[in-house]
Amino acid sequence: MNRRSLPLIALAAAALLLAGCSSDPLADQYREGSSKGFIAGDGSVTEIALADRGQAIDFSGVTETGETVTSADKLGEVLVVNFWYASCAPCRAEASDLQSLNAQFENDGAGFLGVNVRDQAPNAIAFNETYGVTYPSVLDVDTGAMQLAFSGSIPPNAVPTTLVLDAEGRVAARILGQVTSPSILETLIRDTIAETGTTE
Predict the structure, then answer these.
(1) Which of 15, 20, 137, 181 is the right S-S partner for 114, CB 3.0 to 4.6 Å?
(2) What does the pLDDT look like over 133-142, one tens digit per residue?
(3) Peptide bond before 160: cis, by omega within 30 degrees of 0?
(4) Could you count the other beta carbons within 10 Å of the beta carbon of residue 14?
(5) Minimal CA–CA distance to 56: which of 137, 167, 143?
């Protein structure tokens, strides 16, 4: 094979790769190059049967107020994990619904934890003040450790994404994209609480 043919082979391989991704809406949105600053999911809901759940997610991070939070701290109750950042429009749109559900379940078998993928503490705190969010968020912009810990459960760059973890720390459900129907997330939380016996 001569050296002149190598660029043609590389171009052909790239074309095949792009063709293979052409039906992926996340890939399409990325290639579109819009200035939204995020790749949104489609709002689809995935539930994972008890027998099909993988290993517990092992994570550790530091919140906007400087407190360390770990997966071990959260075992024993259902945990809702929301990936977000302040300039993400769907994240802003769902914030009040998430906070309402957090307040509803705060003493009823479930807790909430945000994972901020882009902001430093001042922006995250300002967001919380603006939208009345009281649950903590791990700041993940510098290390990406939280995104890595959950990488088997969320696609890269799909923000917002909301996960429901069971009392053993395993992913029980996922909403890919904005939570547009709080009642669906409420049902997912209640079902997960009920199956793990964390409430009556």
Answers:
(1) 137
(2) 999 999 999 9
(3) yes
(4) 10
(5) 167
Q: Specify the long-range contacts of residues 48-56, CB closer than 8 Å, at least 24 apart.
A: 48/170, 48/171, 48/172, 48/173, 48/174, 50/166, 50/172, 50/195, 53/166, 53/170, 53/171, 53/172, 54/152, 54/170, 54/171, 55/170, 56/168, 56/169, 56/170
Reduce the DSSP state of residue 134 to 3 states and report it: coil
For residue 44, the model assigns a pLDDT of: 87
- Crossing angle of helices 89-105 and 121-131, in 10° steps, is 70
Q: pTM here? A: 0.78
Residue 4 CB: number of other CB atoms within 10 A? 7
Nearest CA to 34 among 105, 92, 89, 103? 89
Closest by CA position to 191, among listed 173, 169, 170: 173
Angle, helices 182-196/89-105, rounded to nearest 10 degrees: 40
User: With the C-alpha atoms ordered 8, 9, 10, 14, is the resulting torsion angle positive or negative?
Assistant: positive
pLDDT over 50 at 22, yes or no: no
Q: Which residue, chain included where needed, has tokens 């997966």?
A: 71
Distance between CA 62 and CA 137 in Å, rounded?
A: 8
Question: Quick one: pLDDT band at residue 169, thresholds 50, 70, 90?
Answer: very high
Residue 195 to residue 38: CA distance in whole angstroms: 34
